[in-house]
């Protein structure tokens, strides 16, 4: 989980929705397939629960879900798909948390397999270097700079 900790460290993302929004911006190509697969899994779980007469009301009461939602389901003569949709909406924070976790694991796996390169991370205190600073550091490391555009001039070969 080092990648996840490194990804979220330094970014004031206290809320799971903002984490998902940030990951969508940075890693949309991994997050979207993970979200589709996990969403299909959640729908399947909720459908099986509703179809097999699982006492959804009792589970929601034990999870301390708002009475507003429980009463809407309790007095409802809605079909299975309406119950599935209601459960899908109620469990949205948990769904997003699983999506962010799955995306983090997917990114780590893709990097490990060599399909993705690590993004360069800069700290907020790091400032971009000016061209003059880059040239002076280059001079210190490699010698003289003789070209007008700041490229290194090599010494001529000794014969």
Ends distance: 58 Å
How would the global form be characterised? elongated
**Oligomeric organization of the protein chains:** single chain
Q: Kindly state the mean pLDDT as a whole number? A: 76
Largest sheet: none
Helix share, percent: 55-70%
Binned strand content: under 5%
SSE ordering: HHHHHHH
Low-confidence stretches: 1-13
Instruction: Please give the count of helices.
Output: 7
Number of domains: 2
Query: Mind telling me the C-alpha Rg?
Result: 27 Å
Main location: membrane
Region (Disordered): 120-159
Membrane topology: Single-pass membrane protein
Keywords: Coiled coil, Membrane, Transmembrane, Transmembrane helix
What's the helix and strand layout?
Layout: H1 2-8, H2 16-51, H3 56-62, H4 67-74, H5 80-90, H6 92-113, H7 131-142
Helix pairs in contact: 2-5, 2-6
How do you describe this structure in short?
With 159 residues, the protein is mostly helical. It has helices at 2-8, 16-51, 56-62, 67-74, 80-90, 92-113, 131-142.
Question: Could you walk me through the main structural features you see in this protein, from its secondary elements to its overall organization?
Answer:
InterPro entries: FAM210A/B-like, FAM210A/B-like_dom. Its main location: membrane. Pfam families: FAM210A-B_dom. Keywords: Coiled coil, Membrane, Transmembrane, Transmembrane helix. 11% of the residues are buried. The protein has 159 residues and is an all-alpha fold. It is elongated and about 95 Å long. The chain has 7 helices and no strands. Helix 2 runs antiparallel to helix 5 and helix 2 crosses helix 6.
């Amino acid at each position: 989980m080092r990648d996840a900790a490194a990804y979220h460290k330094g970014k004031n993302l206290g809320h799971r929705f903002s984490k998902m929004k940030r990951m969508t911006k940075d890693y949309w190509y991994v997050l979207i397939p993970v979200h589709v697969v996990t969403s299909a899994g959640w729908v399947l779980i909720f459908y099986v629960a509703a179809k097999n007469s699982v006492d959804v009301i009792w589970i929601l009461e034990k999870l301390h879900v708002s009475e507003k939602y429980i009463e809407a389901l309790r007095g409802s003569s809605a079909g299975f798909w309406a119950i599935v949709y209601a459960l899908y909406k109620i469990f949205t924070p948990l769904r997003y948390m699983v999506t962010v976790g799955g995306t983090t694991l997917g990114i780590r796996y893709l990097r490990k397999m060599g399909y993705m390169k690590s993004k360069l991370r800069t700290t907020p205190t790091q400032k971009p270097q000016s061209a003059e600073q880059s040239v002076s550091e280059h001079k210190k490391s490699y010698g003289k700079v003789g070209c007008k555009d700041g490229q290194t001039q090599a010494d001529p070969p000794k014969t």
